[in-house]
Design brief:
5-stranded antiparallel beta sheet, 7-stranded mixed beta sheet, alpha+beta, 585 residues, single chain
Amino acid sequence: MLKRNLFAIGVLLATQFMVAKADVDPNFHIYLCFGQSNMEGNAQWEDVDTVVDSRFQMLATTDFDNPKRTMGNWYTANCPIVSPIGKLGPTDYFGRTMVAAMPTNVKIGVVAVAMGGSPIEMFDKDKYEQKLAQNPNEWWAQISKNYYGSNPYGRLIDMAKKAQESGVIKGILLHQGCSNCGDPNWPNMVKKIYNDMLTDLNLKAEDVPLFVGETEYENMGGGCSGHNAVVAQIPSVIPTGHVVSAEGIPGNGTDAWHFSAAGYRTLGKRYAYEALKVMGKDTKADADYKMADNLKKFFKLESFENADDMTVRLGSTKRLAVTGKFADGHTELLTNDATISSNDFTIEDGVLKATEAKKGVVSIAYTDFLGNQLQKDINVEVSDQGPNHVLVVDNGTAGSNSWDKQCNTMLNASMTIGKTYIVTARIKADNPGECALWPIWTTSPKKNQWGGSEDVQYLAAVNLKSDFDEYTWKFTANFAIDKIQFAFGLIGGKVYFDDVSCVEEGTTTEMVINGNFESDDLSKWEVISWNGQKMSIQEYGVTSGIKQISASKLQSNVRYNLAGQVVDENYKGLIIQNGQKRLNK
């Protein structure tokens, strides 16, 4: 009798299990989303954002009052998606794009937990309690308490398990970093959280990739663009991790951390594009999808904005940035997805190498999400009389201390302790004043009260003039220096840099990336944007006084400085001899 009862119970349980499994829709693709305020959504949604396909669903991870939602239930993904205090964010147009790209029998669902200002440790199940205990009055601590039971990771896992009753988890989206800006251990912390999620939800990494968004770029107004160098390490630390670019995505213009509404739409689309690429699908709308007019205008490319004929300086490189204007009026940087080709020039990853003085044509083509292709040819001339480019740093008003305004660059290799290094730069300023050089070891375990490194060498200051002059610093490295900082906080207005160089004494290996600014790549350069600084590469007439001298007048074997003046063999710094620029030590 006992065996018969046990058998009956077993059959009943098996039947219930099969019924439960039958309720899981394999065509309901679910994505977990977590992070801080950008993932939470920080821009007020607009009329264009109010039309949402019912195939795009959100699982409420807390209770909402407006609109009324109950935790654990599915709803059409109208704003706000993440929390009652959230706004438009990347999840909105991630879902819209994914729904449009997938077959019409596929639904997309998001399960999101995010808190403005939250450090990454709040999603570490072994660290969040200590973090809360140390910071009970922080804004993110209050959000955690009010909406997620003071355990945001636990809430995300609980809701993810609830979601698994309805569909299949296909990926994880993360946007976080400003509260851990530049922390070299951040990728490892993300890896632990990702692995914990996979374990707690019985998932496999190869089935559930991680998509990590970059922070706002400095030239878009971002105050934590330096964190993107850390984000870039994600694929090397997490094999199934992928970076979502924020290059060219506009900030909101009011703070240094958040994107605009147009920016969130573009960022969400880029998350979707990355997910589609990983799935092996085209970044293109499904042929059977009936798209709302507002989405058609968002996705339809009308023209290229900056594809103009150009002159490029011989010996330089030029990144061919492609910006598109869409039917709804917004613009996007399309360089990473456009096809840039030429039969006349060498182009690698969108970068033209000007190795020969000649004229030619570069072709730019881009296929938008609707399948429409735009193509344009631009005429390019490579010339040794082409425009010189310099880095222009606009300080705005002068600061109170030297460290208030800076221009810094990460080196392509760390210095060796005890070795001697030579830094040279041509600099000028609208308003004369002092500029000091502070080489720093950014990854030192010694931190100051602002979270930066204490291992800095404070070298002598020089007096900048209203005309370009060359300055040289020679020093022995006391630390494994990986960044050089030019500090000029007492100068208001603009400061101009050209031909920035760093070499180990006795060698010619350049450690500064794009120190002549003939490339558009400023990824290794930064200013203190939150303190009002802006930087840009601009044309500045000729490279130096040497260009004012006819080539026929240059005497062989004679040394010239960058002002075009004859110097002797004892001159230290950059010289031109026999038409070649080199460092004379």
